[in-house]
Amino acid sequence: MAKKYxxxxxxxxxxxxxxxxxxxxxxxxxxxxxxxxFTTEAEAKAAFAKSAAASIGTGSNTVSKGSxxxxxxxxxxxxxxxxxxxxxxxESLDIVIYTDGGCEPNPGEAGSGLALYxxxxxxxLWYGLYHPKGTNNTAELNAxxxxxxxxxxxxxxxxxVQIFSDSQYSIKCISEWAYGWKAKGWxxxxxxxxxxxxxKLAHGxxxxxxxxxxxxxxxxxxxxxxxxxxxxxxxxxxxxxxPAFVKYDKPLDLKAIxxxxxx
Length: 263
Description:
Its cofactor is Mg(2+). By secondary structure, the protein is an alpha+beta fold. The protein folds into two domains: about 5-50, Ribonuclease HI, Chain A (3-Layer(aba) Sandwich), CATH 3.40.970; about 90-260, Nucleotidyltransferase, domain 5 (2-Layer Sandwich). The chain contains nine helices and nine strands. The strands form two sheets. Strands 8-7-4-5-6-9 form a six-stranded mixed sheet. Strands 2-1-3 form a three-stranded antiparallel sheet, with helices on both faces. A hairpin with a 3-residue loop joins strand 4 (about 95-105) and strand 5 (about 110-120). Helix 6 (about 170-185) packs across helix 7. The protein is globular, with a radius of gyration of 20 Å.
């Protein structure tokens, strides 16, 4: 069988692969995955340097293996389309922050990341808070807390700010459940409150900002750029084992960043 080269423009990991099994892991069940096979490495490299649309158009294509759909550009669901439409409208806001936490396995090595947009343009990426024995929930809360600290400085400067987290748990912890726990002396009927220290910190900032800050849940891995970037940063924190929370200091090259390992 002739060797094939698989280009993945949009998937859990992007790039050029020579193994179908590796390609499938990247694109199978990944919303709006974009990929195509080529017979030569030169063709694959030339295609990857261009956009997916330039190589495969906007409809179905011919890559098909196993359980992966024949369509290399999966049709988005109504909810995904709605989410993307909504996020396209966020350019009207001054500051939008996406947060994410990762853990491999869970519990295991954990890290946090965020992506910050100003007037719809990506301006900053942050990552870190590595913990060798963390959990996904703690990593999500850490990321949200860091976003709240940034939001406070932006709000104080007169900006309108919205934060998006893909963790319903984190959002509910600091914006709903914390009020009841606090009223009961930071306790609950079910016993100990997990992640209480970071919940207290994040809730304190949220409570101060709640009248001027928008905090909302966003679906994970449905192709929303900010969420994907925050995800890559959380995994980068694990890869680099960085205990501090630092600004990403490399060029903000979207293709390069999105090609980093996904969580």
